[in-house]
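Repro:
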Amino acid sequence: MTNRIDQPRQFDLVGNPILIGGVGTGFEATLSYRVHEGHDEVTGSFMVGGGTGEHGQYQLQVDVSGAAFSLDRLFVEVFEVSAEDGSEIHKVVVPVIYGPRIVPGYVGYREHLVRRGDTLWAIAQSNYGNGSEYPLIVRANPHLISDPDRIFPGQLLRIPMGT
């Protein structure tokens, strides 16, 4: 019994609704999802497969606009609720970055391939018209940037864009 999340991928920059897709199977063809950051969550369930062990594809649009998320990092989970004891089994968890927490009116992101001599200040200046907005880029790329003074040629940074 395996479940898989193909979308979003680990550390994807996501908006609202969060699009979740993959392949799974569950007892009586039912799986559950949860999107959370440790303080608030959005949950639900959906049908997948034939209910007797068949795996099927699934696609969900999860509206998280009512959640009071306080962190940029969210977790997307898909799991089966055990018919035996109600525990969560065959759980898959994918960490993502929530763009609307980073920039107002989040619509998507641009990609920037770091070249020799680039600085976050200059990248922010080019994309936002203000170099002091570089922390937005850091927040959107926590898996790549641990020190804002150290970016490296070849890194592909996501630049979150809003309205």
